[in-house]
Design a protein that fits this description.
mainly alpha; 3-stranded mixed sheet; 58% helix; membrane; ion transport; Cl-channel/antiporter
Amino acid sequence: MTVYDIVKSRLKEIPHNEKLLSLKYESLDYDNSENQLFLEEERRMSHMGFRCLEIRRWVICGLIGFLTGLIACLIDIAVEELAGYKYSAVKQNIEKFTEFGGLSISLILWAALNSAFVMVGAIAVAFFEPIAAGSGIPQIKCYLNGVKIPCVVRLKTLAIKVFGVICSVAGGLAVGKEGPMIHSGAVVAAGVSQGRSTSLKKDFKIFEYFRRDTEKRDFVSAGAAAGVSAAFGAPVGGVLFSLEEGASFWNQMLTWRIFFASMISTFTLNFFLSIYHGKPGELSSPGLINFGRFDSDHKRQLLKRLKKSMSFLHFMLQLSLSLSLSLSLSLWYIHRPCLQVMEAMLVAAVTATVAFAMIYFSNDCQPLGQDSTEEYPLQLFCADGEYNSMATAFFNTPERSVRSLFHNPPGSYNPLTLGVFTLVYFVLAVWTYGLTVSAGVFIPSLLIGAAWGRLFGILLSTITSSQSVSIWADPGKYALIGAAAQLGGIVRMTLSLTVIMVEATGNVTYGFPIMLVLMTAKIVGDYFIEGLYDIHIKLQSVPFLHWDAPPTSHWLTAREVMSSPVTCFNRVERVGRIVDVLSNTSTNHNGFPVVAHTTENEEPGKICGLILRSQLIVLLKHKVFVERASSRLSQRRLQLKDFRDAYPRFPPIQSIHVSQDERECMMDLNEFMNPTPYTVPQETSLPRVFKLFRALGLRHLVVVDDENRVVGLVTRKDLARYHLGKDGLEELQLAQT
């Protein structure tokens, strides 16, 4: 079999299809079930009890920020130490063989070290926790939208994510660690807020009240914001990121708690990093970017030039990268773990080889001054007292390369160096995205944008002969604007990214030009294609609900989109029928309307309530039968604690043994069902159904007729399968992918 045949056979196995909607994803219950047990507990709680709950929420947010900051500190220190060891070893080797020949040994050493680091990280991801691949931001975005992504917020995922991103960045791939920090913060929040670890089977018996999807969702939003804050030193930007890009549900008090978590995260990171660097008194965040301020005249001149000459180049490049990244993700997908590891190692080796070749053939030599900030300056074939400028971009971690493009004085790079670097790193970033490694796209995007932004600034000062222009056309400023445009065009963030960049620079005067390019990038990009995270979600066939229903869907009604017929239960139902319905693998329903009476001819009954599969499983597990209660065989009355203890990994129905005699018993559902479920008439329009479902975070919406009889059930997949395509309203096909 030829290589072409092997690749062709692998491509046929791609499970991702943006025209399909996967049935494997379940929804989260963001609507509280207000049954008798819940109402009794709420009524027993005093005003002081509610105040204590609010204090606990603040304590949890503080813990989330502290632990997220610690993890970010661990990642930073580990990457710095490993990358420092690698680049020091390679630098010494290059200096040794430059004069006497044998630089091929240096190339082999560089490629081997890259491949070794990446191999370890890829093995951890591919064989132990595949969900830890990538940045994790699309998965967290889906979780906050109400989609249950398997294993996305587990402790094992966190461990593999942290270990994997350290290996990926230290391995020299065109990746960043900022996206995984956001995912890590979300996992920390999901674990801390529950007061236990289901993976370690350890229950600390604290925060039990928050063991439900609604509370957990809010804390995950705080964790994602804390991750952004730790990554960029931007607490306000973290809050806005969680609001703009992540959270689907929001309230005012949540804003302050999330900001508190972000502040604690930033303080924790800076405190421990200052100790690590031997400067415990310096707790202010230097951020990723650090500039002086513009004066007013410089600012006005820069804005005029931005409006006239930068837009087209900025946004065509960001658009091309977005298209290329999505194409890479959709066309190149390998399933087998061993091949995934080999692919990652190949990319790592090629990255080192290409970088070495670029440095080797570059003749861009710059003087090495006393105040030079170069971490690993390579002289190679340059004269004494000079260093290779191409090595500053390639022979560094991506974060340091971005910083050098922002901070190095004019004349540090010639245009050819920046042009070649931009094109080569662009190709490497496209190839790297989608590998089975823990990695983010933030820093590669910033690096590419900073390179061509600085190139544009150099060309502008070269073309313009006016002395006044040459003063304000600092290439570093254009590197900042280009980096913002590039990242904004890929992820389509506007307000949050503006604040992140402003906080990182420490200069509010950059706010308006950054917002200008980000808004233009979003408008131009959205005209052609969706943002990268939305593309990723669509390719995974996730039933994601956007803010509004398709604009041309008013002619559809609840009757046309609902699922029917509906499996209903009586108020007092036979145990055998409940077990049979839950065991039916062909339907696998998770919510069941409770009606006044069901007949043999399947006529709909009047709605009395709604009960969930998870509740029924807990009832079956504890043998809550009418006969046992009447004969006083039951030891105690079931409480909400029993349901919270089983959350979130409720046992499967196959693990619950029900004898033949017990199948004939009866189960009273009145106490446990939600007696006031949300319902809509069957003539309700789709946009109205969508708005109600999306705004309230529902999992099930019962459709009734004029006599309040159940005729259908609307779920997330019923709404997500309608979207606006090129030819108008389209309906996605449901598939078990």
